[in-house]
Specification:
By secondary structure, the chain is of the alpha/beta class. It has helices at about 10-20, 55-60, 80-90, 100-105, 110-120, 145-150, 165-180, 200-210, 220-225, 235-245, 255-260, 270-275, and strands spanning about 1-5, 25-30, 45, 65-70, 95-100, 125-135, 150-155, 185-190, 215-220.
Length: about 280
């Protein structure tokens, strides 16, 4: 049995579907604040909080593997306590969804907690795999209101290109790491197949929608003000640092999705075509 935390989120929900569709028993764990977990045969939804390890005990009972996803930067989670609780419950394998920046910016306030969680996973005594994700293609969902209401996209750093990753690819790689062999002790960097800028992504969405969209570049301060409504200050500042001044390794396309899945990573254009209805 496989426990999936963050089961109602962008990646977790897809992973639950992927695992259940392959015939695995899944316990879908969430804090219960983002709606219900997927309802289907083989899936048991449970409410628990990684910040309260005691609440995890019932969910972990009988589990062989754990998909670990923390909300925000993970500063509220005691990784060692979570992993110790998992090991005591009989879990033998853990797959952590981390961030690429945990490797490129481990000392940054915004990503140091994830870097520490990675270290806890590596020292847990469990079979482990770390997935370092780049920026999500689904971040473009933040543009839905302005696209619908104004036909415009507002974003900072319009010409800075990064290889956004499709959460469906993240879920697929996680499923392989949770159920397959040859992934223990591996750290994978997961990106899309090409780097695109906000202005380019606006054009891609316009083509998918069959309409014109206008791109309007936000200043750093304007973007920061928006992000502070959604996340803590250190995370907002760390996010803008990556979006505006990425390190050389953060703009590179990683081969790891293709290496694990045996197919190319999903492009932003393909992601947009699959999700075009959300923007109408």
């Amino acid at each position: 049995m496989i426990v999936v935390t963050g089961a109602t989120g962008n990646v977790g929900r897809l992973l639950v579907e992927e695992l259940a569709g392959a015939g695995h028993e899944v316990t879908a764990v969430s804090r219960g604040v983002s709606g219900p977990a997927p309802e289907r045969a083989g899936v048991t939804p449970m409410v628990a909080d990684l910040a309260d390890t005691g609440s995890l005990v019932p969910a972990l009972k009988g589990a062989d593997a754990l998909f670990l996803l923390v909300s925000g930067a993970g500063a509220h989670v005691d990784g060692q306590a979570v992993l110790r609780t998992a090991a005591e419950a009989g879990v033998s394998r853990v797959v952590l969804l981390s961030s690429q920046a945990a490797g490129t910016r481990p000392e940054a306030v915004s990503h140091a907690p994830l870097a520490a969680l990675e270290e806890a996973v590596r020292n847990s005594g469990l079979e482990w795999t770390v997935l370092r994700a780049g920026g999500f293609a689904t971040n473009a969902f933040a543009w839905i209101p302005s696209i619908r209401e104004q036909g415009k996209v507002f974003a900072p750093y319009g010409e800075v290109a990064l290889p956004a990753v499709d959460p469906l690819d993240l879920a697929a790689v996680a499923a392989v790491a949770l159920t397959g062999t040859g992934h223990t002790g591996r750290t994978y960097v997961l990106t899309g197949p090409e780097a695109t800028s906000p202005r380019q992504r606006t054009g891609i969405l316009a083509e998918a929608l069959g309409t014109e969209l206008e791109f309007r570049e936000l200043s750093h301060d304007q973007a920061r003000e928006q992000l502070l409504r959604l996340m803590p200050e250190p995370v907002a500042d760390g996010t803008l640092e990556i979006l505006g001044r990425p390190k050389p390794e953060e703009v590179l396309v990683s081969p790891d999705v293709a290496a694990v899945l045996g197919r190319e990573a999903t492009s932003f254009a393909d992601w947009a075509a699959r999700n075009v209805a959300a923007f109408r």
